[in-house]
Structure formats: structure tokens, C-alpha cells
Amino acid sequence: MSQGFSKSSVGRKILMALSGFFLLIFLLQHFVINMLSVISADAFNDVSFFMGTNPLIQYLMQPVLLFGVLFHFIMGITLERQNKAARPIQYAVNNPSFNSSWMSRNMAITGLTIFLFLALHFYDFWFPEIKTKFIDGDMTELNANGEFRFYEELLHKFTNPIRVGIYCLAFVFLSLHLMHGFQSAFQSVGLNHRKYTPIIKKLGTLYAVAIPAGFIFIALYHFLINAH
Amino acid sequence: MSTTKNINITLKIWRQKNAQSKGNLETYQLNNVSTSSSFLEMLDQLNEQLVNERKEPVAFDHDCREGICGMCSLYINGRAHGPDTGITTCQLHMRMFNDGDTIYVEPWRSTAFPVIKDLVVDRSSFDRIQQAGGFVSVNTSGRTMDANAIPVPKADADKAFEAAACIGCGACVATCKNGSAMLFVSAKVSQFALLPQGKVEATDRVLNMVRQMDEEGFGNCTNTGACEVECPKGISIENIARMNREYLSASATSDK
Ligand code: HEM
Ligand code: SF4
Ligand code: FES
User: Fold this and answer.
1) Which end of chain B, C or N, has fewer beta carbons within 10 A?
2) Is residue B27 included in any domain, yes or no?
């Protein structure tokens, strides 16, 4: 790579898109596992056990994911700041809705909302997980009754209506982020084709609606049916 | 054809003495504007009125007044080149407005296009991007080979021609929420990248033009697509994707 790649606008756009692709794939995987919790508690426990104990996932993919999220976040903020600096004086009258979608113009806002949600998500799931495993040193993945603890912990998180509400709202913002982001990432890496781009755009809308709606369904399902 | 009538309008125009001064929106009343006149003719009429009142006329850019030079600019009622698509401001007609309308007229707003006076901005940042690589080097000794001697696939020739239609007006930058110049630069990169004559210097061209674009302080594209909607020449963001591809492969293969 030429030296200036990661400092240039185009290079950064490409890196932004690559981290976006990575997060899209991760999210799909996360969705499939969560969906198991609706279908079968045992299956969910088994897969969670695999994810929680497999060394490749724990010590390779988990750091890569953390890096991916942080990279996407920091790069997103950096680009947004540069973009703000490129227009220090705003128009007195502006009519951007004529030529672009709200989603495309507010990636930083929807992104920041996702980030706030991630903070809550980490507080809920990731920090306790790390504490149990690496601070308390409990690697058994079992609860006091000697059963896998994952499903039980999941249910516990979906009892508070406020938390469930925040979860659902966050996924609405994720949906808005991906409505633009999915197809945008293809354009950023240079994939724009008269035949394929319309298909990519349709796929993007499908992904952006179906996956967040699925997460919302899972949260509501546990809240309404199981937790009561 | 619509019939001509006269309308009365209120104008809110950005006035700024020079690059250093602050500037503000001034209000002007202008009566008896023919709906058959162009937007720039309307501004001429305003300036005549201002001169008669012994006031400083409004400075604005223009040259060909037929949509080919790219000099005219203006952000009119919240849109680059005003309330119509596929046109420059000199091609905008007053029939797009109604009697009693208030019309806001502002300069392009971009760090890389500083205001010089009133509605006139300095677009020499575009010139410097062009100088960084927007050309092909040819032997001008007199034994220049005829360009037509090299066969070019029709589809490529058409795409290169479409990209070459860019007149460097800067509407893409003005309308982009990020003040990004990627549509302009990608059109200039594409018009050469698609042709055999341009392939020779393709690697350095895209690297140098993007570097210059970044140095000038333009923002980063977020693929909102606003630029291609407002571009008077219908330049497509397909060109931005092509530039990104060119940039990626140039970065991977260049020695620099
Ligand atoms: C951590 C919170 C997040 C923040 C602050 C954030 C911020 C941003 C910003 C500002 C952009 C636009 C950047 C640009 O176009 O130059 C963007 C693009 C994108 N984001 Fe996010 N995002 C976040 C989370 C996510 C997540 C969780 C996903 C996917 C599951 C995602 C997927 C994407 C995609 C696919 C793009 C398009 C990339 C492109 O336009 O090339 N983002 N993000
Ligand atoms: S790409 Fe279109 S809007 Fe941008 S400078 Fe060229 S002609 Fe003007
Ligand atoms: S004055 Fe030449 S394009 Fe408008």
C-alpha cells in the first residue's frame, strides 16, 4: 500500500466500508445464535458454550471484533469531524431532503446511538461474562444448579420493560444506519454496477429491516412469553 | 409554452465586502421581473436598480450564460443552481418562481471555496486538483499520433464522454453535506482512466489528484448521492466507485 492510504479520504472510506462489512457479517452471526434462544434453550446453551469456550473465538475473534467496533467508531468520528470542517458556515436555507435520504445524512447520529446502546450491551452481557471468567476465575459456564447459565442470564436481562424498550429503540436506529450503510459500503469499495447495484440496494433494505426486526422480535418474545 | 408575465419578488442575498469581512444576508425588493428572464438577468436588473440608487452592485460569477462554462454558481432557496435539475444557474428561468416569492441567494459554502466577495467564491482549488493529474502527456513535436488510430470500445468511449461533460462548476461540493469534491475528481479521473491514452499515467494520476483534493480541505464522501442529483451535467456516482477502485489498485501497486 502507498504510504498515504490510511490518511487519504478514499483510503479511509475503503477502510470504513471494510469494517462495516465485517460488522454486518458479525451481526448476522449474532442474530442466528440469538434466534436459537427462541427455538430451543438447549441449542442456545450449547452454541453459547461453544462460543464462550472455543479458544479461536475467545482469543482471536473476540479481540478482532473489539478492534473492528472501535476502529469503525473512531474512523466514523474522524471522518465526520473532517466533514464538518469542510463546511464551517452553514447555508441560511437548505433543502437536502430533495436530493438525499435522511439515513444517508445522519450516519454519525445513528452510529452514535448504536454506540450508546453498545455501552449498555457490554454492561449487561460482556462485562459480567469477563468478570465471571477472568476475574472470578469461574470457567465452568454453569449456574448453581449445575446447568448452563447462558439461557437463564438472557431471560433475566429481558424482564425490565425499560431495558427492553431501550433495546428495541436501539435496533430501530441500527436499522436506519444499515438502510444506508449496507449499499454504501459496496459503493465505497468501488462496487457499482448497472446490473448488480439495484440488487445490492434491495438486499440492503432486506437486511436492514429483517435483522433489526428479528432482534426486536427476540427481545419482545422473551419479555412477553417467557419472562412472565 | 407558458406566457410571460411580470412578478414582484423579495431577495435575501449574501453580501460580503471581501474575503476577510463577515458578511450577512441583505433584503432587496425587486418589482416587474419578467418570468421569461433568466435568473442572472434578474440579478442584472437588481444591480441596475442598485447602481441607480448609488449602491454597490452584487458581485456574482458568470461567463457563457449558456450552461457550458461552469462559472455561474449560487445556492438558491436551499439548492445548488436553484429549483430545477440538470441545469446551471444561467439556465434557470424566473418562471420557476411566483409573484410575492422570497428568494434566498447564497454563495457555495465550502472551506475549499472561500468567498471572495458577495456571491463570488474562489474555485482555484479545482484548478490545482486538475494540475495535479487531470491531463495526458503528449508529444507535441509535430509528429503526434492521431488519437483515433487507437481503437476504443464504444461503451468505454461513451462513459469517458459522459464523465468529460463535467464543467467544474462545483455544485457537487456545494450541495454535499460533507463539502466533498469526489464527484468532480472522479469525473476527471474517469474520463482518462477509461481511455487507452489515459492508462499510461493512471496510477500517478489518481494518487496525485486525491492527495491534492484532500490537501484543499474538501470533505469525505458518505455516498448520500446528493451530488449526482444536483450536477447540471448528470455525472453519475458510478465515477466515484471507479475512482475508489483506481485508488485502491494504484495504492497497492505504486512504489510511492
Ligand atoms: C459503534 C457505533 C457505530 C458508529 C459510531 C458508526 C458510525 C458510522 C459512520 C459515521 C458511518 C459513515 C461513514 C462514512 O460513510 O464515511 C458509518 C458507516 C457504516 N456503518 Fe457504522 N457505526 C457504528 C456501528 C455500526 C454497526 C454495528 C454496523 C453493522 C452491523 C455498522 C455498519 C456500517 C456500514 C455497513 C457503513 C457503511 C460504510 C460505507 O459507507 O462505506 N455500523 N458508520
Ligand atoms: S461533477 Fe457536476 S456538479 Fe460537480 S463540478 Fe462537475 S459538472 Fe459541476
Ligand atoms: S455562465 Fe457559463 S455555465 Fe452558467
Assistant:
1) N
2) yes
B76 phi, psi to nearest 5 deg: -110, 120
CA triple A110-A113-A118, angle to 5 deg: 125
Contact (CB, 8 A) for B192 and B127: no
Look at residue B196 and give its three-state secondary structure. helix
| CA–centroid distance, residue B63 to ligand 3 (Å) | 5
Q: Give the per-residue pLDDT at A156.
A: 84
Chain-centroid distance of CA B171 in Å reads: 4
Q: How far apart are CA B116 and CA B129, in angstroms?
A: 20
Provide the pLDDT for residue A130: 78
CA distance B117 to B68: 23
| Whole-prediction pTM | 0.94
Residue B195: pLDDT over 80: yes
pLDDT for A78 equals 97
Residue pair B160/B210 in contact (Cβ under 8 Å)? The answer is no
Confidence of residue B182 (pLDDT cuts 50, 70, 90): very high
What's the CA-to-centroid distance between B115 and ligand 3, angstroms? Answer: 18
Ligand 2 closest atom vs CA B80? 3
Domain, as residue range, for B153: 123-138+147-253
Same domain, B233 and B130: yes
Q: How confident is the model at residue A226, as a pLDDT?
A: 65
Question: Which of the ligands is closest to the CA of residue B167?
Answer: 2
Among A94, A84, A152, A87, smallest CA distance to B80 is for: A94
Domain A3-227 listed as CATH 3.90.320: no
